[in-house]
């Protein structure tokens, strides 16, 4: 999701287990993979040192060029002195006094050149030392470069692109996973009341990262849109939508460009298009309890929970016919017609929250501190099991918890905090023999 700090990639590469099934277990660094390699870091440090030394040599070279001009000037003056000496020899008596004075003046002019010449010698010695050190460093750099393969940047870049392509191909082969672990949360923002919902579209393209924000569980019909998580954090709102009806609860979902929500004081589900600003479909969810008849433990008209996963669109609710226990219904995303339903034995009023991953409903035992995923029901096998998957309820009151299949994360509203949980799933990779 680009929210957590960069710790590296988990890159899947196919291998086979004893039964011939394909599995993925290889870990590779993040895209700037050279920067974290010890040898590459050493190479970079040495290259920086060479660059610094080259700059120093350039400064010394400029100084020696300046000093060389002094030397040329001194050479001219020395030639002048030589001529004066010859004149003195020719007429020692007559001109002795006059030329001696001129000679003294010339010598006074030459005295400041003596320290300059000494500095010139020192600079020349330093340049020689620097050149020798650079030769030694060049040998070391060549050795390190050969050891790591001597890849240039473009070649490494192409290798990363190839690895990304292989990763995407491998991810497409992943079957639906089973929840193994929940980590986090990562706090994205603090805003709104204690209760609300925020979400992204799991079917949106990789470049489309719009966020929708719905504060409160009732008496509201304003949806706020942000172009990205960054805009959401900074409060840079892009659009607002005024829904034709107020919503009930916090268990809405955005799916394939439309918002699905429970109409206030009814068991009617509404499909609203963000693109057209119109209601595309509405349907009563037969026998579903509403208006705090069968809410989650925290109340808030959370009777009907709409959610989406890798398989499609779902509604989770309770009915009198099922003695107030949870019913799971798969919905047609266009017509909202119930395609199939499963009756569980878990009391809806005892559930803190729930979410779907790969056709399995996961139910938490509480919305307060100490909550954990306590129960799961598989629609594929029509079986349930009791689980023990803890997660950190950092702000003590969760009123919305939904899985996003694109981000492989849980979006949560935790006591006025918008947070994300990372999930760890157990996957089996599809093979050609799988049906």
Automatic annotation (TrEMBL):
Entry's Gene Ontology BP terms: signal transduction
Listed Pfam families: Noelin-1 (PF12308), OLF (PF02191)
Limits of the Olfactomedin-like domain: 175-427
Disulfide bonds: 176-358
Matching InterPro entries: Noelin_dom (IPR022082), Olfac-like_dom (IPR003112), Olfactomedin-like_domain (IPR050605), Quino_amine_DH_bsu (IPR011044)
Superkingdom assignment: Eukaryota
Entry keywords, A to Z: Coiled coil, Disulfide bond, Glycoprotein, Secreted, Signal, Synapse
Coiled-coil annotated residue ranges, if any: 36-98, 127-173
PROSITE patterns: OLF
GO CC annotation, single: extracellular space
Record's subcellular location: Secreted; Synapse
Name listed for the protein in its UniProt record: Noelin-3
Organism: Chlamydotis macqueenii
Taxonomic lineage of the native organism: Eukaryota, Metazoa, Chordata, Craniata, Vertebrata
């Amino acid at each position: 999701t680009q929210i957590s700090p960069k710790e590296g990639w988990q890159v899947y590469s196919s291998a086979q287990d004893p039964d011939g099934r394909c599995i993925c277990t290889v870990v590779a660094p993040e895209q700037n993979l050279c920067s974290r390699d010890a040898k590459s870091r050493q190479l970079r440090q040495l290259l920086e040192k060479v660059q610094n030394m080259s700059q120093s040599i350039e400064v010394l070279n400029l100084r020696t060029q300046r000093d060389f001009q002094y030397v040329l000037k001194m050479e001219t003056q020395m030639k002048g002195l030589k001529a004066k000496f010859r004149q003195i020899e020719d007429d020692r008596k007559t001109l002795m006094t006059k030329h001696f004075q001129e000679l003294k003046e010339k010598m006074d002019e030459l005295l400041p050149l003596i320290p300059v010449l000494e500095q010139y010698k020192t600079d020349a010695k330093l340049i020689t030392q620097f050149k020798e050190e650079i030769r030694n460093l060049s040998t070391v750099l060549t050795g390190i470069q050969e050891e790591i393969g001597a890849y240039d940047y473009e070649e490494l870049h192409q290798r990363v692109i190839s690895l990304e392509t292989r990763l995407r191909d491998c991810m497409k082969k992943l079957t639906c996973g089973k929840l193994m672990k929940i980590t986090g949360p990562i706090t994205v923002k603090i805003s709104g009341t204690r209760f609300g919902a925020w979400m992204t579209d799991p079917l949106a393209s990789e470049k489309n990262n719009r966020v929708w924000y719905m504060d409160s569980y009732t008496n509201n019909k304003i949806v706020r849109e942000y172009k990205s998580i960054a805009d959401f954090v900074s409060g840079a709102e892009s659009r607002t939508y005024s829904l034709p009806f107020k919503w009930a609860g916090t268990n809405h979902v955005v799916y394939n460009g439309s918002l699905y929500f429970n109409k206030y004081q009814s068991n009617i589900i509404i499909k609203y298009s963000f693109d057209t600003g119109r209601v595309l479909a509405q349907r009563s969810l037969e026998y579903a309890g509403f208006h705090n008849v069968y809410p989650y433990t925290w109340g808030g008209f959370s009777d009907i929970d709409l959610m989406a996963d890798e398989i499609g669109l779902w509604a989770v609710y309770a009915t009198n016919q099922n003695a107030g226990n949870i019913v799971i219904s798969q919905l047609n995303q266009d017509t909202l017609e119930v395609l199939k339903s499963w009756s569980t034995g878990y009391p809806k009023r005892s559930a803190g929250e729930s979410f779907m991953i790969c056709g399995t409903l996961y139910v938490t035992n509480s919305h307060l501190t100490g909550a954990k995923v306590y129960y799961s029901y598989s629609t594929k096998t029509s079986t349930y099991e009791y689980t023990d998957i803890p997660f950190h309820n950092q702000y003590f009151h969760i009123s919305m918890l939904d899985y996003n299949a694109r981000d492989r994360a849980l979006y949560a509203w935790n006591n006025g905090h918008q947070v994300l949980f990372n999930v760890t799933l157990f996957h089996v990779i599809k093979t050609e023999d799988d049906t």
